[in-house]
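Holo prediction — pyridoxal-5'-phosphate.
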Amino acid sequence: MNDDTTDRTGTRLAALGRRPEWTGTPEHPGAVVNPPVWRASTHLYPDMAALRGHPANEDGNFYYGRRGAPTQWALADALTALEPGAAGTVLYPSGVAAIAGALLTVLRPGDVLLMTDNAYEPSRAMGRGLLADFGIETRWFDPTDPDSMAAAICPRTRAVLLENPGSLTIEMADIPRLAALARGHGLVSLLDNTWASPLGFPALAHGIDITIMSLTKHVGGHSDAMMGSAAAGPEWYRKLRLRAQNLGIVVSPDDAALMLRGLRTLEVRLERSTKSALAIAQWLSTRTEIAHVLCPMLPGAPGHDLWQRDFTGGCGLFSFILKGGTGPARDALIDGLSHFGIGYSWGGFESLATPVDPAPMRSATPWPPAAWDQADRFGVRLAVGLEDPADLIADLDRGLAAWHRAGAAA
Ligand SMILES: *Cc1c(COP(=O)(O)O)cnc(C)c1O
């Protein structure tokens, strides 16, 4: 199957990574639909001349298991094809490993990293822990205010780590503007683009240098495998790849095959969960119990203008903030749901709900935001899956009844 870049996304998702040499034998190229699982640590050479003359350290050459084999190559190839401007994609065993691998490629002791204040907590922990231990300082800034990022830049600033929208508070930043600001100061810009994927937001095309995803979420899509990726143009791709080799990073071919399976249905799953999330967000916005619906796809919600301007798609992940109430009442709401599992992930076929308590994780901006009624602080994050949205709405209706019973208004 050959990918034709003039085809539309769904057509390309069906074809990507299915090179005839990866899905068949020399006699029968392309004989099976999917690249088989190549389990291989040792790669064999036909003779000494081949071993001595093995090709340079480039993609697509057999060498040794740590550099992967066609199953991993097919996935990386497919992800690169989906990201306009990418020269290649490095695969990591998790999304967190991708963030660490990319930061360790870009930063050196003595550097300062700027990090968006809405970043995923393990990214923040990396700044406080791993990076601090290596003599790299992290400073946080308000993602919704470009002046806040500009003010944080100093002569030692080397890079900026963005996440958009933030995966807990779903705050939207003006990424093209922040990326241009970074470039203007000679900083490397990295974006955790897990929420939108390149289907909703082609990050490199919007000025980002390195785009990172937790493939565990949307690409896997079935809550049964973990992986991460980082894609970049030629210069940063080569550096990412060499640093990943230094770190001994390799992903299992079984997991790569699961990711390729998920990738085939990425567009239809995202379309369905986006539509359902929007319907649920709309319903929540009519309820008197809800103070804020943090869903950029929803007209009138925070960040909707940026979403409309920059994004070609959404996903099922958003949050809402209850009007007043108590922590135990919020817990009763989540416990009162039967179609939403309670767990720290998203992007799977199944819906999930988790509490949103970002206050202790902020350092540059207050939470709740100063403009809000400070009693409105108990949030819930929903990862809307593929269930029928009418059933999910009925479930949330029961959850809100449990919230009232638990004395929310007390
Ligand atoms: C889950 C997540 C990650 C980390 O991915 P893992 O594959 O779980 O390590 C990174 N960024 C965001 C925004 C996430 O939601």
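READOUT: DSSP finds 14 helices and twelve strands in the chain.
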